[in-house]
Write a structure and sequence with these properties.
about 500 residues; alpha/beta; Rossmann fold; GMP Synthetase, Chain A, domain 3; 3 domains; five-stranded parallel sheet; four-stranded antiparallel sheet; globular; AMP-dependent synthetase/ligase domain-containing protein; AMP-bd_C_sf; CoA-ligase activity; ANL_N_sf
Amino acid sequence: MYSMLFLGGVAAGGIFSGTNPAYQVYEIRHHIRMAQVKMFIVEPEVLGPVLEAAELEGLTRDKIFIFNTRPQQDVPEGFRSWEWLLSQGEEDWVRITDLEELQRTEVARLNTSGTTGLPKTAMQSHYNATSWHTMLHDIARVPWTVRNLYTLPGFHVATVPLVHACPLITGDQCWIMRRFELEGFLAALERHRITNIGIVPPLVIAIIMSPLRHRYSLRSLRQVKCGAAPLDAASQEKFRRLCSPDATFTQVFGMTETTGTISHFYYPGTDDTGSVGSRFLPNTDVKLIDDKGNDITAYDVPGELCVRGPTVVRGYFNNPKANAEAYDAEGYLKTGDVLYCDGKTKKWYIVDRKKELIKVRGFQVSPSELEGVLLMHPRIVDCAVVGFRRPGGPMHGVADELIRAYVVVRPSTSTTSSPPEPPLTADQVKAHIRAHLASYKALTGGVVFVPEIPKSASGKILKRVFAEQIEREMASSKTEGQGDGGEQRAKL
């Protein structure tokens, strides 16, 4: 659906602004306001919340078209099919060749991930999109016939323009999954002998933890790129061993504001250390800054990454406050991510999100480091680590941050012939961390067992969900007397 609507809408002079079909009324209303949505093309199955949100925001039904491409999809009474738009005549595609017009003409308004709050709307221009394609695909083409399987959501920057436009330029074959399902994904890899995929860490973990990995062959895979969040090197290597013997599995760094990935290992480059790349896209300037905004760019020095270049969007739509906070006087975008470049290998590594680093006894603790260690435990299939403060304590009432782990436990594999596994305990989880990491990285804020870790559509952990839960916990008298280091079980 998304690729057709992207191409048709942009060709007609519109601006693509895909939305998550899982959104509820509140989220859709926010999207309408932030992107100034003028019309919707929507499948009938998700019409309900779209209609309610649209009417609350003043959009009438004649601005909502039904995308009824499947046999069982009917057009509800009072609505028009998207096919009505096809009957309104056609004109030639307007080719933009002026550089300034390319830079100021939007191709898409895309929501950011919303990991720390409500999403903002990034303005991706035609210049951003065409520059990104050229610098990514015209360098180091692989020597085989590419067969892609795309699973990432069509409203996300990971697919705009990568999925919707790039295959038409490169001529690469591609298959697009309508809806992700693990076994269907693995079966499609085998059936279509897929050679190239983009993947996110939760999917890597799901595959290497699933017995389905033995049922389907991934040996056709020759190039795997992983992004959206850090992935520990051990999990990366476990997945790579499932692929072709000559496969490269590399991690990348990027964000909505950079039109997708901006750091890479160009083929045949490979890596097994957890780096996110040895090169940034051509024509991209980068620097590292400290908490005060000072330029501290140097090898082996961690700092907030700032980027400037042709793939960096010019700002957030209708949001001057966010723009003032995100861009510095030199036009660099402050990514909010702390990285460093290894002086010997010249490889780049993510330390963590700047706002998510946990401060303990003068040290900065990386949640992603702890998450990688937790995933080494055979009973843990997913996790998230956050820091928080309790009122009271030293330093004028502000204590060191406490470290808490939210943990998803692997389902029991017991059978009638073997005794059930005893439940994993908080003490065992804390002991696992103590055995692998320095004492100041201990789980002083406790362990919470949860059924799942909330994530954005692109696979990023929604840490704000945990922050909100902790705020409620502190405000509730029911939590009084419950030790920070205890065990909890929660439904998020």
